[in-house]
Write a structure and sequence with these properties.
The chain is of the alpha+beta class and 134 residues long. It has helices spanning 15-21, 32-40, 96-100, 109-112, 123-133, and strands at residues 3-8, 24-26, 46-51, 57-70, 80-95, 118-121. The chain has five helices and six strands.
């Protein structure tokens, strides 16, 4: 089992829309490191959904439903997408300020590589975030 965090601007693609649709092709990623992370995702891996820019908070948990495949929105087959399905909302969104102020999360990729849209989480980081959100 691996753990991940994906970021989306809620104005572009929100958690509410994701839940309403029931699944999403996580496409449009055009950063090599994020692409490499997508390639490592496997069905059943758990994914935290982060609203970036305006909200700056983790709002829900999803899981990988289909492993990496060529991104249908790209002209080049080297770009990847995965399919995600929602699992549950966070009772309490976990804000960026909460993450910054929690010493257990001081090395989380979200703080070290803030522009990365798909990032791995350590199991311990995932557990802390899950506890904060529920």
């Amino acid at each position: 089992m691996q753990y991940w965090l994906v970021k989306s601007e809620p104005e572009a693609y929100s958690w509410a829309r994701f839940v309403q649709e029931g699944r999403a092709c996580w496409d449009g990623v055009r950063n090599y490191q994020a692409r490499n992370n997508l390639q490592q995702m496997q069905p059943g891996d758990l994914v935290l959904f982060y609203h970036s820019v305006s909200e700056k908070a983790i709002v829900g948990m999803a899981k990988v439903d289909k492993p990496a495949y060529p991104d249908p929105t790209a002209d080049d087959p080297k770009w990847m997408a995965v399919d995600l399905v929602p699992v549950r909302d966070f009772k309490d969104p976990v804000t960026l300020d909460q993450i910054k102020n929690d010493s257990r999360l001081e090395n989380i990729a979200l703080l070290r590589q803030s522009r990365l849209s798909v990032m791995p989480l350590k199991a311990e980081e995932f557990d802390v975030l899950l506890a904060l959100g529920n």
